[in-house]
Amino acid sequence: MPVTRANAMSKENKKVAVIGAGIIGMAVASCLQRDGHDIFVVDPNEPGLGASFGNAGVFGTSSVAPMSMPGAIRQVPKWLSDPYGPLAVRWSYLPFIAGWLARYIAAGRPDRVERQARALRDMLGRAVDNLAPLVEAAEATAVFHRNGSLFIYRSAEGFAKDRQTWDLRARNGVQWEELDAAALRQFEPSLSSNCTYGILVRTNGHTSNPHALVTCLAQNLIKRGATIHRTAAIGFVLDGDRLRAIRTTQGEIPVDAAVVAAGAFSRPLSRQLGDRLPLETERGYHIMISDPEVRPKVPIADQEAKFVATPMDTGLRLAGTVELAGLNAPPNWERSRILLHQARGLFPALRDNYPEDRLSLWMGHRPSLPDSLPVIDRSKRSPDVFYAFGHGHVGMASSGMTGMVLADLIAGRRPTIDITPFRANRFA
Length: 428
What we know:
By secondary structure, this protein is an alpha/beta fold. The chain folds into 2 domains: 5-52 and 212-277 and 372-427, FAD/NAD(P)-binding domain, CATH 3.50.50.60; 63-108 and 146-205 and 279-368, D-Amino Acid Oxidase, subunit A, domain 2 (D-Amino Acid Oxidase, Chain A, domain 2, 2-Layer Sandwich). The chain contains 14 helices and 21 strands. Strands 4, 6, 7, 8, 15, 16, 17, 18 and 19 form a 9-stranded mixed sheet that branches. A 6-stranded mixed sheet has the order 10-2-1-14-21-20, covered by helices on one side. It has a 3-stranded antiparallel sheet with strand order 3-9-5. Strand 1, helix 2 (23-34) and strand 2 form a beta-alpha-beta unit. Helix 2 runs parallel beside helix 11 (210-223), helix 2 (23-34) packs parallel to helix 14 and helix 7 (127-137) packs across helix 14.
């Protein structure tokens, strides 16, 4: 029998709890299972019903530019004063997020941006290729697409204003094709004539059904012997610094190791382990149009209106905007409807009014750290508990590499990328 990576691990198999059943948790669990570990997943909801459910579905190898860029803070007053702008803040929440905002602004210093971009390059550079083996094993290739994505500007001047971001991408290996008005129209005839300049990144990909993708990964885990528990993890049982069990709302489950991958809900668990991390939620919204008048061939990012239009199996998804309001505030569904207003400027064929039965609205919690990098590390209190959360806007794209890194860490192997930028103690 040939010696595979999993076979070589057989004497060190562990019972591992993965806390969180989104795309990160499922990718981590899949990579650990491939290494031969006994996996069970803990989440109070069904797999893929958190932030993974409603995102734009893009695997962005080009998403190496952090959210806080030099000079970006000067745009904030304009965005906040624009009812159709990409950013909204619930003012009652401002005192709670002030520290996070200060760190966010500091993360936009040029030297820090360069370091963050290099780390994101390592995480995302092979995003589609890293996830592909897990997708194929889960028989989810029907919702997994490798045909690129398109970035739209109203003019070459609009692109020039965004030049520093594309220069940063170029320094980190991103390649693209520039399309003038004629080439843009040939590539995507449904676009408005106001769109005269485009950037095509062919190495990007997308899923046409994020929920189905996560569900397929979960079903494959179960098929191969994993268990998924519909319960919430609330703590850990430690013997000194060694993990003995995780505490859930349904009792204790003995384990050898655990991975906290609960997205925006990870902070209470990491705090119990001695790590006080500035994890916040950037609340994201989408609106879906069923049976849409237009169906672009690839995801289209409107760089000026700051949203993404993605062709999905169930219609056209318009996703984007950032709302800072915490985990508990009720949704502001006007944020979803704003996206439809913005999309009419991109696709003239969209209707002015739709019956409600052709629209669906969603709000979810992006898990965001102020420097746009996730935490991928061991916990402070126990070498048996690991972190994989805070992926912000790149959770789908970074899932494959995150799973590979966690498998290496739990096996005692050296990860294939430098994880220093993702250490939990960088915020100490």
